[in-house]
Amino acid sequence: MVICEGNTPTQVSALSDSVWEFARKEANEKPLSTDGTQLAQWIGMDYGTVLVHIFIPEQRQFYNLENLWADAKVVRIPDID
Question: Is 90 exceeded by the pLDDT of residue 81?
């Protein structure tokens, strides 16, 4: 499971597009399903073995998916800025 965020719906949408393009080019994979693209506050992408969740900060904090899998190993990837 990948959980990340963009600061605005525009950024969330751009991140989703980037994930889609990267997975298609590098792994020849397309998501089995994608949801949330219209409002782009929380976009979910199901690749079968990998779920990608892209949030705006308020939605990420509200749903707190990290807490649902509190016993799972968390790997934090620093911002590239």
Answer: no
